């Protein structure tokens, strides 16, 4: 990989290209109110319009290209108010995640081209399964709170839409990158552009590898993207195929407070106990080489657009996602009976019922369905009618591949096996009307969910059958003041079903209630030629919110519980100011209060009164200063994340300390001619070399932390032709 990287550098040096007088560098500072060109985006039914009364952030292609360094989407969105990003390996490669307004990814609805990405059972999104998807994304919209009606699981924290559709400009791109912890990246893209006949083809291949900041937290990721389409008259068709494979050494155990922060012993934040093999005195003898997560996922989408159907535009799609893989684990000192293995007699005639077992826990699933929306406008009114129907079929099973039992090499049968089925269908209608300076907005959705499971799982029996029927209404208005000032108000009611682990971990699955949230938002927007301002105030009132208790189950999934009444309320401010044409400043601040009402403690079983909801910092803020001129760009930005509680008990000994990060980036663009340019960058994160944790969990009464990388570097060069 290094040899190829040096070859590209040599190629860049061999070009004698005159530097352009007018900078073509990329502007990433204005993350507010950027209107992506959605003419070719056939997901309009699920995306908010810019003048809708919904708190939103829109990133266009140039923003995405500038922020895309090989890390996953949670790190691309770090500049957005209220976003907290983190990764298991500590350096943003491999398993990455984020929270928005304190809500984790299971409460953030994610779609790609209008197709749901959230796993039907866990509700999570595993970016590691589709690495480098950002290199094929041309627009992103993030809606805060409930947002507009969309396909897939309910959104409480945010709705996130990615668009990859449409013909790209003819040409290609080669990107090579190197970084700390042995990180290497290579991406190759080629696009035909749209021919006179109306056809086009887009392709991409990517590979990303890294050792990770945490010990043995290695990642070996490959992905691809292929799309082809045709546009003629009022019709367009596009087929999209993307996917990837990952082999990631597990780093999801975390470390205790002494290992993270020191104490009687020196801190060792890179310690990883996953796969460790111990002697009888708990001294580490070595590690299991294949303590890995190994998974592949393939997405296929077929999109059709008809721009003149009954006076409106029809968008329709069918889709299929196939995923299969396992995580392998070395289990030391476990009972043979737990894995369906009989004990054996040793040489002295004693019964041996415990030993070491290597297992693979499999998931083999299919997710398929269809979506459609129809939009028309007349006399200031806009109508959208849409919906979708999806089915998930999942197989969960475990295999013993080795045991230190003389009677067992590998089990021919699964030691657990279960099947799951989930149907999800929705229909929605949206209306907006412009009347002088007012714009009225209405939106109502009906959603049907049926989720059943039979058989077993890695943590025990998984037998349940639940059906939910939800009505989700939303309404709002905007009022245009003098100049470009806009006032907006939004009120919505949303519902969300429990996920698989909620139902499985419950003593009685029928006792787990669906969540309900009433979302009230007020926003103010103003802009001029050299500045933007966006202010949003919200109150989210929950009934039966499933909040993170801070604990994990035996598979490492977070355990949640209904908390009765709870609320989130806050103020979000984001803005941009151009001191000069070359020097720009942007900043954001999110202040919030996140409370459980009359919380019943998970550790004390007593009413503890109002406590802070876990993983919900009261302060999240940041700022970015950028200088750009004639192809040169330099940015300095920071992010502050306030203290977070690891459980809902509100105990100071169960917290993630606040942290403040400072990062820097320098890039230069050589414009060779109209079709060729070379872009090189160096990015340094955590300039202060801070040792910190951005995520954690509770195991009983003991807090565990996920250490994040100290000072680290990522470099890259892109050749476009």
**Unreliable stretches, pLDDT < 50, 5 or more residues?**
1-42
CATH class: Mainly Beta
Largest sheet: 22 strands, antiparallel, barrel
What is the second-level CATH architecture? Beta Barrel
- Count of helices? 5
* Beta-strand residue fraction: over 45%
The proportion of residues forming helix, as a percent range, comes to: under 10%
Q: Mean of residue pLDDT?
A: 89
Number of strands: 42
Total domain units: 1
Describe this structure in words.
The protein has 721 residues and is mainly β. It has one domain: Beta Barrel (Maltoporin, Chain A). 5% of the residues lie in helices and 58% in strands. The protein has a 22-stranded antiparallel barrel. It has a 5-stranded mixed beta sheet with strand order 1-6-7-4-5. Residues 1-42 have low confidence and may be disordered.
Task: Give the structure's gist in a few sentences.
The protein has 721 residues and is mainly β.
Which key features would you list for this structure?
single chain; about 725 residues; mainly beta; five-stranded mixed sheet; 42 strands; globular
